[in-house]
Amino acid sequence: MARPKHRVTESPKPPARGVKAATYNLLLDTAMQLIQQDGHIPPVAEVAARSKVSRATAYRYFPSRSALVTAVVDTSLGPVRSFASDHADGRERVRELFMKTLPRFKEFEPQLRAAAQLALEQWALERAGLLEEEPYRRGHRVRILEHAIAPLAPQLPAKVHDRLHRSLSVVYGIEAYIILKDIWGVPDREVERTALWMADALIDAALREAQRPSTRRASEPAISNGRVRPSRTRS
User: Fold this and answer.
1) Dihedral-angle region of residue 78 (phi above 0 means left; psi in -120 to 50 means alpha; beta otherwise)
2) Interaxial angle between packed helices 44-51 and 65-77, expressed in degrees from 0 to 180 and rounded to the nearest 10
C-alpha cells in the first residue's frame, strides 16, 4: 500500500470553548486574512501583533509556521479532509471527491498557494542546513485518495493500485490547479473538466493494465505440488 515518505504534519487541536478557543480562532482568522492579502505564510509573531495577542500566547497555539499553515489548510479544505463517500463505484467516488475539492481551491486559492510556497521554501532551507523550524510535511491527500479508490482495489493488482494511488495524488492537489490557471490561463470550469478527464484517464489506464495477461499472472500466486507459494516479480 502506497504511503508518503514523511509523517504528515497534523494541525494543532483547537480548544473546544472559552477564552482559549476565542484566542485560537482570532489568531487563525488573522492568519487567513494576512495570507489573502499578502499571498504568503506570515511569521507567527506577525500574526500575534496583528491580533493584539502576546507572542508567548500565540506560540502556545502555533509554535511554528508549519503548525500555523496546517491549521490554515485544514480550515480552507474543510469537509474535504474528512471526505467519506457511500458510492460503491470507485470512479464515481473519485469524481465526487474532485467535485467537492475544486470549489475549495477556488475559494481559498491564496491560502493553498501559500502552503505550497512554504513547503518549497522549507525544502530549500532544509537542503542547505538552514531550516530552523519543524518542516511542514504535506500528504493528507494520500489518506483521502485511499478512501476514494477503495472500491477499485478488488479489480487491481497491488502494484497497479499503488500506481493509480500515486498518479491521482499528482492530479488531485493545488499543484495541478496552479499549472492550469497560471500556465494555461483556463477558467475554473475548464480546470474542473480537465481534472476530471485526467482522473478518468488514470482509472481507465489502471483497469486496462489490470486486464493484461502478464499483469494478472504476476498478481496470482504460484502453485507447486498442490501448495500455494508467493509469486516473484522483477522490478
Assistant:
1) left
2) 70
- pLDDT band at residue 235 using 50, 70 and 90 as cut-offs: very low
Cell of 15: 480548544
**pLDDT the model gives residue 226:** 43
CA pair distance 161, 206, nearest whole angstrom: 7
Could you report the per-residue pLDDT of 126-153, keeping only the tens digit for each? 999 999 999 999 999 999 999 999 999 9
**Residue 170: C-alpha distances to residues 11, 167, 194, 198 (Å):** 22, 5, 13, 10
Q: How many Cβ atoms sit within 10 Å of the Cβ of residue 7?
A: 9
* 231: pLDDT strictly greater than 50: no
Per-residue CA distances from 194 to 62, 145, 179, 186 (Å): 37, 18, 11, 10
How many whole angstroms separate alpha carbon 219 and alpha carbon 207? 14
Asked if pLDDT for residue 229 goes beyond 50, the answer is no
